[in-house]
Amino acid sequence: MTFLDLEDAVAPLEKESARPKVVDAIKNLPWDDRVLCVRVNAWDTEWTYGDVIEVVGNAGERLDEIMLPKVQSAAEVVALDLLLTQVEKNSGLPVGHIGIEAQIETARGLINVDEICAASPRLETIIFGPADFAASIEMPVLTGGVEIPEYPGDHFNYVFSRILMAGRANGLQVIDGPFLKVRELDALRQYSLRTRMLGYDGKWALTPDQAVVLNEVYSPTQEQFDRAFDILDAYQQATEADRKGAVMFGDEMIDEASRKMAIKFVSRGERAGLTRSPG
Ligand code: GLV
Ligand code: MG
């Protein structure tokens, strides 16, 4: 997925002139089958409706999603959903064509994350925004989304987990936000393991180099992928041929829950282009 930004990467004086550039980029760059998203400005600005009308109205056919930043309440998602419906109708697009990605980056957004994640059938993804979030809760940091060595533990563990539960409970993709030290790829790799190990689907990449690291971190290894298939085979043999619900697989017991865990590795691995090793 790629997103084009009309929000914080665009200076206030350029907000309106950025819209036709984004429309042009959506229509004319070679995106192939990449999922394409535009981040509009938040509802507490004067630009949100204009962003949506101009971008979806002129390039909605190729566009897949709108990203809504700094979402504070379910009502903000509903408002975007209603606006999208009108723009889709006026542009001859099927209603529901555009999906929504919502960013949680304020204290209020986090408190309301359950309702936000359930607010619209258009919602596809919930995203954590560490830089704005740190500002919102007055965390004494000057860099977004990096480790804080002075803190004995993971300063965002609660936030990561809270967003993950709300997203998963509503069947959404859950994505971690940016790591702003763009030249520190080893530090990125280390830090991104936190959300990867909790169960996040991915993390923002700000540069092509970051994308290489993150694609690796959020995809299963070949070994995990192969082991998942082995578990599925053993479980199938146990349940179907031997009529047993729980059996030994090497040194561990496997059962239906093991199958569920393994299935996730298989689907993630297949999405990442892995194939099962021969033999
Ligand atoms: C992203 O938008 C962030 O604020 O971290
Ligand atoms: Mg932000």
- Quick one: CATH superfamily of the largest domain? Phosphoenolpyruvate-binding domains
Provide the list of bound ligands, each named once: glyoxylic acid, magnesium ion
Strands of the biggest beta sheet: in what spatial order?
1-2-3-4-5-6-7
SSE succession: EHEHEHEHHEHHEHEHHEEH
What characterizes the major β-sheet? Answer: 7 strands, parallel
- How many E-type strands? 9
β-sheet strand percentage: 5-15%
Number of helical regions: 11
What would you call the shape?
globular
Going by CATH, the architecture of the largest domain would be: Alpha-Beta Barrel
CATH class label of the largest domain: Alpha Beta
CATH topology name of the largest domain: TIM Barrel
Cα radius of gyration in angstroms: 21 Å
Share in helix:
40-55%
- What count of structural domains? 2
Q: What is the structural class?
A: alpha/beta
> How much is the average pLDDT?
97
First and last CA, distance = 34 Å
Low-confidence stretches are none
How would you classify the quaternary structure?
single chain
Descriptive account of the structure:
The longest helix is centred in the C-terminal third of the chain and has 20 residues, at 222-241. The chain is 48% helix and 13% strand. By secondary structure, it is an alpha/beta fold. The protein folds into 2 domains: 2-217, Alpha-Beta Barrel (TIM Barrel), CATH 3.20.20; 222-271, no CATH class. The mean pLDDT is 97. Helix 1 (15-28) packs parallel to helix 2 and helix 2 (48-59) runs parallel beside helix 3 (74-91). The chain has 11 helices and 9 strands. The protein is globular and about 65 Å long. The strands form 2 sheets. Strands 1-2-3-4-5-6-7 form a 7-stranded parallel sheet. The protein has helices spanning 15-28, 48-59, 74-91, 107-111, 113-117, 130-137, 157-169, 185-198, 208-217, 222-241, 256-271, and strands at 2-5, 36-39, 65-68, 99-104, 123-128, 173-176, 202-203, 247-249, 252-254. Magnesium ion is lined by residues 8, 69, 105, 129, 131-132.
